Amino acid sequence: MKISVLTLFPDFIENIKDFSIVGRAISENRLALECIDIRDFAINKYLQVDDYPYGGGPGMLMQIKPIVEAIESVKTENSKVYYMSPQGKVLNQKKLNELKNEEHIILLNGHYEGIDNRVIENYVDEEISIGDYVLTGGELASMVIIDGVSRLLDGVLASEDSFTDESHYNGLLEHPQYTRPREYRGLAVPDILLSGDHEKIRKYRLKESLRNTLNKRPDLLKNKKLNEEEKKILKDLLEGGKDNGLY
Ligand code: ADE
């Protein structure tokens, strides 16, 4: 997969190439990441890329010409253009799973007070937000996407379980996890995890995953289709967590 980032701050994004999972995805040729400096397409020798908004108002807008020419410098028939914007649909795990199946995504980053709307209407496939707050530009949002997509690419994580098991993959939050030592300052790991009984552990983890979701993100349960086992556990949790004999 290829990701092209169109930005006024290519050095900011370039840094991500050297780290952790994203770095590995790149070095193993599973991800190609390029940064295009929108200023290379500036309208004059002063490298101007912004101007005052027609009709007045605060701040400066990024102009159409440098952006469109930056898009055209990387776009092919298999590319999709995404504009990072607080007006976009809020990013979630489902969207990251869709993005990782694209051949080439172009992430357009705005700055100043935004960009000329003709770009959005005519050259952008979709706007993406990373949350209901306003950042100074789209670069951090692009980095969130690069990070979130890299780890989903085939072969990047050691095993598929690494993400099929975790929060948001199946619409629930992940169960709590523990590692050695077994006890620290009187804080013990739940005995059941040391029992070696895989079926009991599976049920325990499912219950704790549902408990976590109910306590921390009850809104997720509205969109989740629960199977019979999950419904039974949830009912038990809602009735005060009394032991229902599941484990
Ligand atoms: N640019 C500014 N704010 C943003 C946000 N919340 N998400 C994505 N891009 C942005």
Task: Walk me through the structure.
The chain is of the alpha/beta class and 247 residues long. It folds into two domains: 2-150, Alpha/beta knot; 165-239, Orthogonal Bundle (Trp Operon Repressor, Chain A), CATH 1.10.1270.20. Helices cover 36% and strands 17% of the residues. The chain has ten helices and nine strands. The chain has helices at 10-14, 20-27, 64-74, 93-99, 117-123, 139-150, 161-164, 198-216, 218-222, 228-238, and strands spanning 2-7, 32-37, 50-51, 61-62, 79-90, 104-109, 126-129, 183-184, 187-188. α3 packs parallel to α5 and α8 packs across α10 (228-238). The longest helix has 19 residues, at 198-216. It is elongated and about 70 Å long. The two termini are 44 Å apart. It binds adenine. The site of adenine has 11 residues, from β5.
Offer a concise description of the structure.
By secondary structure, this protein is of the alpha/beta class.
Task: Give the tags.
Trp Operon Repressor, Chain A, two-stranded antiparallel sheet, 247 residues, alpha/beta, 5-stranded parallel β-sheet, 9 strands, single chain, binds adenine, 2 domains, elongated, 36% helix, Alpha/beta knot, disordered C terminus
